[in-house]
Amino acid sequence: MTSPHAADVYLHGHHESVLRAHRSRTAENSAAYLLGALRPGQRLLDVGCGPATLTCDLADRVAPGEVVGLDASAEVIAMARAEAAGRGVHNVSFQVGDAYALPFADDSFDVVHAHQVLQHLTDPVAALREMRRVTVPGGIVAVRDGDYAGMTWFPASEGLDEWRELYHEVAQALGAEADAGRHLLAWVREAGFDPEGIVPSAGVSCYATPAERAWWSGVWAQRCVSSNFATQASAHGLADEVALELLAEAWRVWGEQDDGWFAVLHGEVLARA
Questions:
Q1: Could you tell me which residues come within 8 angstroms of residue 117 by beta carbon, excluding any fewer than 6 positions away?
Q2: Going by C-beta distance under 8 Å and a sequence separation of 6 or more, which residues neighbour residue 146?
Q3: Average per-residue pLDDT for the chain
Q4: In this predicted structure, what is the pLDDT of residue 5?
Q5: Using 50, 70 and 90 to split pLDDT, how confident is the model at 90?
């Protein structure tokens, strides 16, 4: 059966610059809010696992418990399997699947985790209800998403201001929510979780050392011209190649600033099923 949300478009896509950012994710830098709730032997589902560096870290935390990584892209699932094999992580498996129709029975997992997923969905509440369905009573659903309006940087840059404005416009054109982080608590409540079992929080990623600035600016300079963000901006008539290249150049200029500083705000929620 085709999902009613099959037309959802992943704004970033899977260009190498995007995957490079995804592969930088670890349990410590991307799921610290969840780690205290993990125990050996738990069964965990990672929805939107991507290339699985984070998934494999979580598998280490719950071993010998089973971990399943799920992603909508068969290409990315192949990368995830290679990552797990290369790291020798044996308690994890991967499959292609739909966040709106998880291919698992009710009450299948102790923990369901989704990192930077809900911001790309046209119906995040429906996905949260599915995550709740496959979580055992008393288990945990853990979600974390960025908030683009909450990002901040120094020094000031008109180019980066324009980049953020365009990002919001592209997300809106796709029916997605660029500022998902601030919405997570409301979405989790709307999905039917008991308010007494919800723990909201926030996290921050910061890029301020020379190496961090070079990496972060390089990733986004490429994404501005080569990723699905660029494709969708053009397809929806929101920016042409010249405008996108100017945004890429703004990122490169920011990355060369000795006092450059960039912070990314993330909303986080742990919710008891």
A1: 47, 48, 99, 127, 143, 145
A2: 116, 119, 180, 181, 264, 265, 266, 267
A3: 95
A4: 59
A5: very high
CA gap 98, 255 in Å, rounded: 37
- Are 132 and 66 spatial neighbours (Cβ–Cβ below 8 Å)? no
Q: Helix or strand or coil: residue 11? A: coil
Residue carrying the six token digits 């291919």: 103
Contact 125, 188 (CB under 8 A): no
* Contact between residue 144 and residue 266 where contact means Cβ atoms under 8 Å apart: yes
Neighbours of 96 (CB within 10 A): 14
Report pLDDT digits (tens) over 41-53: 999 999 999 999 9
**Is beta strand 135-146 parallel, antiparallel or unpaired with respect to 261-272?**
antiparallel
Strands (E), the chain: 44-47, 67-71, 92-96, 109-115, 135-146, 152-154, 198-207, 261-272
Cα angle 218, 223, 224; round to 5 = 100
